[in-house]
Amino acid sequence: MIKKIPEEFLEKRFKYPESYTKIIELNLVDFDYWYIMNEEQALKRLAGLRQRYPERYLVPFARRDDNDDIACFDLGEPEKVQIIHDFASSGYEQRRTYENLWEWLQEAVNELIESNR
To answer: Rounded distance, CA 51 to CA 109, Å?
Structure first.
C-alpha cells in the first residue's frame, strides 16, 4: 500500500477501496503468480506508469511474477481493478478489467489452486 500518495492523486481524491484494506489486514499478499507489492515497489511502478501512460491515473497494487502484468486502481473507476501489461505501447496496455477487487482476488486464488493441483 502506498502511504505517501503523490499530490496529483490526492487532489483527485484517490482512496483505496475498503476491500483492499481488508486483504492487507488479513495479510493476503502472495498468490504464487500474483503478489501485492510493498510500498517501495508500488511507488516505483506508479512513477513508471505516469511516464509511460501519462493520460491515465493508475495506482498499482499487485504484480504478476511471470510477465509484466500489474493490477491497478484507476482514478476514473476507483472500485474496478485494471490489469495493465506494463511497458506496452500506450493504447495497448489494457489487458482486462475486473468489476472489483474481490473478483480479481478470486481469479488470483483460482490460478493458485489450479497451478498447484
So the answer is: 31
CA pair distance 28, 78, nearest whole angstrom: 20
Q: CATH for 7-116?
A: 3.40.1580
pLDDT for residue 1 = 67
In degrees rounded to 5, what are phi and psi of residue 96? -165, 160
Backbone angles phi, psi at 83, to 5 degrees: -95, 120
User: What tens digit of pLDDT does each residue of 52-94 get?
Assistant: 999 999 999 999 999 999 999 998 888 999 999 999 999 999 9
For residues 113 and 47, what is the distance between their CA atoms, to the nearest angstrom?
A: 33
